[in-house]
């Protein structure tokens, strides 16, 4: 079962574009990341720049409207994620509990939807999705 563990650092929504990371915290997080890798459960991970460098595209008017960050209405924003493959939700929770997060960080755990989770009609509508997943994600870099 694939799970995404989403890091929500409280206060990150107001961080400036040039926010500096604490090297000691980065070392602790790297040790955790290595443990995920060594256990064979890590699929992917990334940290995200603060919202002040981002943009949102909303469709509330029926047309795309772009808003540059920071997003003043945001209460919580993502700081990064891990994609893991484990046997159960409980195992994903156990991995999240091992994270060296600080008192102002929350990890939200969400199971990834698998095509088999859907009706045959939805599976047919999503035909080719598995090929898109393999796609050219890293060629854009």
Task: Please describe what this structure looks like.
This protein has 141 residues and is α+β, with helices and mostly antiparallel strands. The chain has helices at residues 23-38, 89-97, 120-125, 129-134; strands at residues 2-9, 42-47, 55-58, 65-68, 80-85, 105-111. It is flat. The model has no long low-confidence stretch (mean pLDDT 91).
Query: Which overall shape is indicated by the principal axes computed on the Cα atoms?
Result: flat
Measure the end-to-end span: 28 Å
Strand tally is 6
Could you tell me the strand content as a percent range? 15-25%
In helices, the fraction of residues equals 25-40%
Largest sheet strand order:
2-5-1-6
- Rounded to the nearest angstrom, the radius of gyration is 18 Å
Q: What can be said about the biggest beta sheet?
A: 4 strands, antiparallel
Number of continuous helical runs: 4
Would you list the SSEs in sequence order as H and E? EHEEEEHEHH
Structure class: alpha+beta
pLDDT < 50 stretches: none
Average pLDDT:
91
How is this fold's topology laid out?
Blueprint (H helix, E strand, L loop, with lengths): L1 E8 L13 H16 L3 E6 L7 E4 L6 E4 L11 E6 L3 H9 L7 E7 L8 H6 L3 H6 L7
Antiparallel strand pairs: 1-5, 1-6, 2-5, 3-4
């Amino acid at each position: 079962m694939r799970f995404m563990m989403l890091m929500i650092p409280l206060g990150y929504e107001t961080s400036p574009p040039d926010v500096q990371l604490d090297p000691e915290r980065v070392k602790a997080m790297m040790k955790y990341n290595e443990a995920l890798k060594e256990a064979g459960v890590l699929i992917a991970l990334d940290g995200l720049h603060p919202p002040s460098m981002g943009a949102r595209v909303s469709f509330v008017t029926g047309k795309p409207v772009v808003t540059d960050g920071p997003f003043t209405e945001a209460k919580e924003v993502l700081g990064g994620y891990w994609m893991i493959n484990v046997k159960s939700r409980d195992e994903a929770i156990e991995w999240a509990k091992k994270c060296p997060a600080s008192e102002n960080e929350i990890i939200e755990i969400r199971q990834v939807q698998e095509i088999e989770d859907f009706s045959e009609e939805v599976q047919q509508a999503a035909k080719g999705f598995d090929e898109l997943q393999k796609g050219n994600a890293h060629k854009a870099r």
